[in-house]
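ERR on first pass: missing label on line 2. Operator R.T. fixed the label and resubmitted. Corrected input:
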Amino acid sequence: MLQINISEQDCWLSSDELCECSDISSALLLELVEHSIAMPMEGEVIEQWRFSVENLHQVKKATRIQRDLALDWSGIALILQLLDERDQLDHEVHMLKQQLSRFKV
Amino acid sequence: MNFKDYYTVLGIDPKANDKAVKVAYKKLAVQYHPDVSKHPDAEAKFKEIGEAYEVLHNTKKRAEYDELRHHHLNRTQNRYANQGAANGAGQTWGQQQSDPQTDQEFSDFFSSIFGSSRGGFEQGSQHRQRQTQPQKGQDIEIEFPMFLEETLVDTLKPVEFTLQQRDPSGRIVEQPKSLKVKIPAGVVNGERIRLKGQGGPGPTKADNGDLYLQIRFVPHPMFDVDGRDLSIVVPVAPWEAVLGTKLKLPTLTGHIQLTIPANSQSGQRLRIKGKGLLSKKVHGDLFAVLKIVVPTSPDEASKQLWTELAEKNIFDPRASWSK
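pass 2 clean. output:
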């Protein structure tokens, strides 16, 4: 059976890789960074940027929403931010319910 | 193959104009978009809505579909008249395997009439590229359960998943695939790990899709997770809370001795530094949350002691009410 070790390099993507994996142009990547949809972990210029795998997921989500709902990027940035907040609140509610259940007799 | 009534799918009248079609689609698309909606059937519903819109917003396709629908309704009416039989519409959607597939192939019903091409809500986004390059294999995303204990050290874990491939005759067949992956210490709940080229097959090995493992912590019987911190509820007797005590506290790596200070309160949190989860090479903390537990059936001697305590004590637990 094939064994895979996760290297440090598997944890981030270059700008080119992000564009390839999410099927976007570098011009769009610049636009997504302006809207904080894509957020480089490090690097000053596009050639040096590094993105997390999580950010790739966010970019893919943004492009699907843009294609399917025809919204502008600032609207999509707001949606993503609100979805993140909803997920965090869901997690918090779940955790508090779990703790409460441990306190019940 | 069941007939699909696209007007019913969009909830519009067959005489609805283009604008009404677009408004109905947009309303439902926002409601059921798999990236936004929490509806359990969001992906299937969204595909159905997209398919209906694809047909009804296109004058040529709509005319073809209307003709087909007209014949279908006539046939159905005749069948009712002859047999009194009922006919129901069905769904034949595939199972989600990767990111929400909002641009996957349409249903057999659609393909049998129009082929499998798609225009999309905003056709041909100007930002897209690589249309001329060969299609990369499908990315696969699977939820990957991990026990909390496993996240503290590098852990070799088997990964099993199914790839959908087309056989030489063009049929989709499922092919099981197994790997062993060394998951690095310090992964966090919800984190995605990318395994390059381990997804669906592409034209060449280099063009294979990627496999994404989304880490999901298995709920622990004792510990709750908050980021990289853990908490554990510690039951203590009333006299332990008042007088203080020392007890053996379970952690992910074994037991430690915990000192409960005198006059502790129920719900009080005691921080044990560095006994939480590992994240970015830093250990989180463990919080012991005290829960004062009263004996459910005290014996006579204990009852007497409690009574004596109640008589001699001037403590008023509800003093704040009278302020």
